[in-house]
Amino acid sequence: MQGFLLLKKPKGITSFSAVSRIKRLVGERRVGHTGTLDPMATGVLPIFLGKATALCGLLLDGNKRYTAEVKLGITTDTDDITGTVLRESEVNISNDSLKAALEHFKGKIKQKPPIYSALKKDGVRFYDLARSGKTVNIPEREVEVFAIDLLSVLDENNCFTVDVSVSKGTYIRSLARDIGEYLGCGATLTALERTETCGFNIGECTDLDDLDEQNICEKIVSEENAVLNLRECRVTEKQAIRFCNGGQLSFERLHINSFAENELVRVKFGNIFLGIGSADLEKNQLNIKCIINDYKAVAE
């Protein structure tokens, strides 16, 4: 089984658990996802099967969009409502002050990831270090908030909802925490849904609970659908066989306009998606990024 599936992850399970269920349904050992969602989070989770798992890394760098609910007046160790409450504060924040705070976080910002995250230090996950009681110095990193819009103003529980678009590596839990710190009352994330990632939106997704062994094949599409944003590079049969055997392709023999340095392109022979090539301007050649279908498919 090989292909691409847009899954809507339900609340209460890990992304790993979602992948495990897909494995059982399709009987395929090689199944991967792009971009982990916390158990409390729902939303878009692209899934790759078979050789298509080689494309997983290409989608990790994509921008993402979320709908997030944040509660003011409470701080937790995980930066979301599932954690242990560290502090509770009185909230005397107007909606105008809230809107001004959100504006402060637009653009490129420095952000410290949550201690309870899958990031690693010396090969050990941060959340494992946190659970063992070890103190971890987490460095800040630059991320970008492209847009953050208030969907619902503060309610009687001091909760509000935002629609936020961010660059890769942005933690919405950290964003909620930092907004609370900026307002002086603390905050934590209470709900999160990923509504878009890498150009795919939640309306295109299938609920995990709606999938079974009979209908899942209907939802799996060609893995090429995941990378249609890349330019197409068509090759001859000889070039296709060379590419699939690990050989680079000279720019001079390719019928495509000039490349950008390290540009990724879809390499195709006829209707067959062979894989991804990476442009090497210094050597004037197209290198192999990954191979999805080999030359035998070409010969057939």
Order of helices and strands: EHEEHEEEHEEEHEEHEEEHEHEEEEH
CATH superfamily of the largest domain: Pseudouridine synthase
With helices defined by DSSP (H or I, 4 residues minimum), what is the helix count? 8
Stretches where pLDDT is under 50 for at least 5 consecutive residues are none
Helix content: 10-25%
CATH topology of the largest domain: Pseudouridine synthase
Major β-sheet, in short? 10 strands, mixed
Strand content is: 35-45%
Q: Radius of gyration from the CA trace?
A: 22 Å
**Average predicted local confidence, pLDDT:** 91
N- to C-terminal separation?
18 Å
State the shape: elongated
Structural class: alpha+beta
User: What would CATH call the architecture of the largest domain?
Assistant: 2-Layer Sandwich
| CATH C-level label of the largest domain | Alpha Beta
Tell me about this structure.
With 300 residues, the chain is an alpha+beta fold. The chain folds into three domains: 3-62 and 199-225, Pseudouridine synthase (2-Layer Sandwich), CATH 3.30.2350.10; 64-197, Pseudouridine synthase; 230-299, Roll (Archaeosine Trna-guanine Transglycosylase, Chain: A, domain 4), CATH 2.30.130. 20% of the residues lie in helices and 36% in strands. The chain has eight helices and 19 strands. The protein has helices at 15-26, 56-59, 95-104, 126-131, 172-183, 216-219, 237-244, 295-299, and strands at 3-9, 31-33, 41-49, 64-72, 74-76, 85-88, 107-111, 120-121, 124-125, 141-152, 159-166, 187-197, 200-201, 206-207, 231-234, 249-250, 264-269, 272-280, 285-291. The strands form four sheets. Strands 1, 2, 3, 4, 7, 10, 11, 12, 13 and 14 form a ten-stranded mixed beta sheet that branches. A five-stranded mixed beta sheet has the order 15-17-18-19-16. The protein starts with a strand and ends with a helix. The mean pLDDT is 91.
